[in-house]
Fold this sequence. Notes:
Helix content is 45%, strand content 14%. It contains 13 helices and 10 strands. α10 links the parallel β9 and β10. α10 packs parallel to α12. The termini are far apart. The mean pLDDT is 97. It binds 1,3-dihydroxyacetonephosphate. The site of 1,3-dihydroxyacetonephosphate (13P) has 10 residues, from α11. 1,3-dihydroxyacetonephosphate binds next to α11.
Amino acid sequence: MNIEQLENTAKAMATPEKGILAADESTPTCTKRFESIGVASTEQTRNAYRSMLFTTEGMEEFISGVILFDETLRQNTVDGGISFPKYLQDKGVLPGIKVDKGAKPLAGYEGEKVTEGLDGLRDRLAEYYDLGARFAKWRAVITIGKDTPSSACIEANAHALARYAALCQEADMVPIVEPEILMDGEHDIDVSFEVTEETLRTVFDALYREDVYLEGMILKPNMVLSGYSCAKQASVEEVAEATVTCFLRAVPAAVPGICFLSGGQSDLLATQHLNAMNAMDEVVKPWKLSFSYGRALQQAALKAWGGDDSNVETAQKAIYHRAKCNGAATVGQYSEKMEKESTPV
Ligand code: 13P
């Protein structure tokens, strides 16, 4: 385990004014996204789409790393035939890899899930490192319901996250530790706060027990939001305050970066929430607060692309714009004016 390399990679991932592009949709998830725009999901169309995203000129001004899926890590740019990890590295963008095998039903706990993928992970990490990946991602899913989450579900997922993180560090790769509490449901923001705090405390306990080096990891959590079907939706300021308060209580200061997932928020809200947190100048925040968005970075570009090569330029303008707005939000400098000024036509 190379401590210096881990620290440097984690710091680079959490550079101010930059964040992470999550483009690691598994094939079934990518197929779902393509269905929404009427495009068939084949190895070739997925390759063309990812190539469009990654070859966006100037994206490296706001993107420090890209999370890839196994198939994508082995693919090449459409024009030029350069492997994606090499292409990204040459641009100064760190390539990362999703290594979990998905959230599967947790036996004995109806409606709850535990993420699989630990078996054989050491060997897979070694191969991914050789292919150029310098960080990894593992996503755990926690559901809020009438009787959920159970402590069994939180503990099983925390344990798996910690074992994954330890294996990544052994392989000199920075683990992105992603415990995602889904925001589907009618619960209010207070319930989100409670569940997020309990989950984070359990995850950091497990990381401590597995001897994970906190300075060499990145946390990728949900924000503390009102459930999407809750009648009373918290304001942007309330979300920012609840999220920062919760994280100050549960996330050690040694963690260099907290890069949020967007989790089904609109593009605008995902940017506004992040900006509001970073604009809270009166609160000392020991970690960088940034983004690791999938949908909130890609939605507009996916729609603009529509599977048609002739739309590549428009789609690239759309992703560039969202990356720029979110880059500004990492330092509390995003504004409505900026949103409008640089909106692509
Ligand atoms: P979203 O930002 O679309 O939630 O995706 C982030 C991610 O990587 C989920 O694992």
